[in-house]
Write a structure and sequence with these properties.
Number of strands: 24
Strand order of the largest sheet: 2-1-6-5-4-3
Largest sheet: 6 strands, antiparallel
Distance between the termini: 76 Å
Structural class: alpha/beta
Shape: elongated
Length: 623
Amino acid sequence: MWTDNKRKAELSEHIRELNFNVDKVSKRSLINSPFPLLIAETNGNIIWKNAKFVQEFNNYDINKFISSLLKEIKLEIENNEKIKNNKLVTDFEIEKKKYRVVGEYLRSRNNAKANDKKQEKEYIATLYFLDETEKEKLAEEIEKSKVCIGVIKIDNYEETMQRIEDEDQAQILAKIEKNIYDWANEFKGVIVKSERDTFILVCEQRDLEKLEEEKFTLLDTIKGINMPEKVQATLSISITNEGDGNYQKLKYAKDGIDIALGRGGDQAVVRENGKYTFFGGRTEELEKITKVKARTVSQALEEVMLDSDKIFIMGHSNGDMDSMGASLGIYRIARALEKEAYIVNETNGMSLEKFMDVVKEEDSFKDIFASKDEAISMADSESLVVVVDTNRKNYVEAPELLNQTNRVVVIDHHRMSTEYIENPILSFQEVYASSASELVTELIVYSKNDIKLTNLEVEALYAGIIMDTKNFTFKTGVRTFEAAAYLRRCGVDIIKVKKWFQSDFETYTTVSEIVSKAEIVFDSIALAVNEKEDENANIIGAKAADTLLTISDISASFVIGIKDSKIFISGRSIGDINVQVILEKMGGGGHITQAGAQIEGKTIEEVKAELISNINDYFIESI
């Protein structure tokens, strides 16, 4: 009897506090509330519920759901989550209906003695259930119907048309356009042709999600069009749902097209939530026949140099022969214009050691190199920074130098990454090229000035091409041989260049050990791990991956190494498998036949498992 009286007193006090300063009309409104109303203890005991509550949840086993809800509320109270001035706000879902639960609580007095520390605290809560099911459906519909804008571009339009007979051009273009319009019609998208090789797409978010799920089948449809021998039509697609308005969305879509083309085309780029997702991009890049761009960039580069007080040239960190050869070529262009120029270089890979030993012996090259700190202290807003052999802002020798000036030029042959250097005043991004040294050689050839390369500069450029083509076996086109022929005419000592690439006995032994421990996965992929810490892990891994690719029936190879707790992966392919797509998912990049990645915060075992999983996904997506 005493306990019952005690409970009644508690409830009376709670109701008094709940209705403090509330008149009779308001009390009547509380009881007849149009919203489900519940008064309960957090131990699951239901004290009172109004008629609307009974009506709303009549068809459900509500006690089970309420018990779970009250436990959650108790945890929130004790953890001070979502609590302000004893006010409660939480979400509640039953079957397919969603509710926002709002209310307030009071501490429940119990019969335990004050010093009984084992007694759990309980609370009495007054809860309103606001049905937000329709609101959620409306919000979802608004999200699904959000406008997305895209750009579709026919890759290498000029080169493709030049390879097709005049009488066939109109018919092939008609086929391409029909497939684009039919594809958009499937999801009621709007297509507008803006230029001869460019289309603007307008669709909804629901359509974009479907396109992503289907992995942009239009890419394969266009590649399936019958074309003359050695010619294949491909598209680049960029779609985004980001932007304050449609104009900004279109701008972002155009930026995405630049990325797609910078990665070789034949792919779709989707920008959502500040991130890029890529689909396709598995075919070899088409070499461009015309050299108009090389001539134009050469002249533009010289004009930009003439307007700059100092010129700083840098490649990627842990530079190799290609980045150094390209840097020396750009340096010579600057010096021919009588401009003050420096090559920013602090870190060298093992492949550069022998070359740098030779450079140090040359008096004319003693003052051309600057450390990162020296370059930063000398650079100002009028300086020009020329980045070669990388387009990733975090991979350059001195990332801080990019913040010293807005005058940045990028010359690179790698597929563009999502961490690319933004808004360069001049870009020569050609993924068909074998190397940065090939591109720089073309710039020298088309210079308006008579540039005289020193023997060491000629040999550095030639060595850069040799290194990235693996002695003219990978990514080698007509323009590669033309650049090499020009350098040969300038006087290349082939024997000297060959010696720069010779491995010492210790390195050769290490590579052999790595190769001997390789395992075969997915029938034709060699996977090897070098578990020893090695300061040249990336170079040795690359050499081992190249060696594995010389074994018959091996179509691709991956080698994992470790240096200073950082994991390095080198990937190589004969062309059947796109190693760049596989390693891109691990933060890496490169080309179809040659790619790499650097990973921190994971063990070799974790990286190996992730790599195998990505290879598996690659084959699944290829089906």
